[in-house]
Amino acid sequence: MPNLKTFSLISYGLIKNYDNDIVSLLRHMLNLEKLILYLRIDYQHRFIDPIDLLNQFSMHLPQLSSFKFYLSIINDQSHFVNYLSNNNRNMKYQQTSDIVCFHNNKATYHLFTLPFEFIKLINIGNLFPNIRFNNVIELWVFDVGPLEHEFFLRISRAFPLLKNFIVSDYKSLFNYVIHSSDDIQSYEIVKYPHLTSLDLIGAGVSCVDQLLNENKTHLPRLNQLRIFYDTLRITTENFTREATRHNCSNITRLFTEKQFVGCKDYYSYFPLL
Fold it and tell me: Regarding predicted confidence, which is higher, 81 or 203?
């Protein structure tokens, strides 16, 4: 390890033992010049300062000249709010940005260098910086409030190469009412030209309507959909609604939480299944 010059570690799973597994490892790489880290850390029961962690091991790497990182940390919400109010963001690296999300008394803090060079971003909310994530092809978003049209428009602009999109909209999950008509609206249609996979298992009818209604969203390459059957049935009006037909027409893989026997209208709606 002392001879290593370049080291990259990308982990999409949650890490619960960061100090022993990661920090101690990096401290042995005394001659490291280039470092890339992508880590998701779960510290709900003990507060963790992400900037302090980064500085902990980097002070032992005197040759380090290039450091790209993404650090996502789950903390108790009240502890994290206190941290934000007292933190002076004393980073000695290149430009950074962050995203903060709150859900179920937990705070998820995303801290990363710019430009964002990784392909996956997991569990952001409806508040994120006005920057472009040009390399991200898989995105997970969730929020306790409804996700509106403007949010999906911002997503399409910020993540231009998005291929896999996982959406959870907890507040509207059990709301089975569509609040808008199928008429073409005056607002701009959201376009996801590269999107092939859409996961709406955690999304309610209003959110599903935002994404499958062709008067609101254009999904020319969508071929895989995960969704609750009842949510799909209600949104498509028992597979007869014209406004959602086009975005479903190229789907070759449909995943629902239960098995069912499709009717004639169902197979007409999904001709490639």
Answer: 203
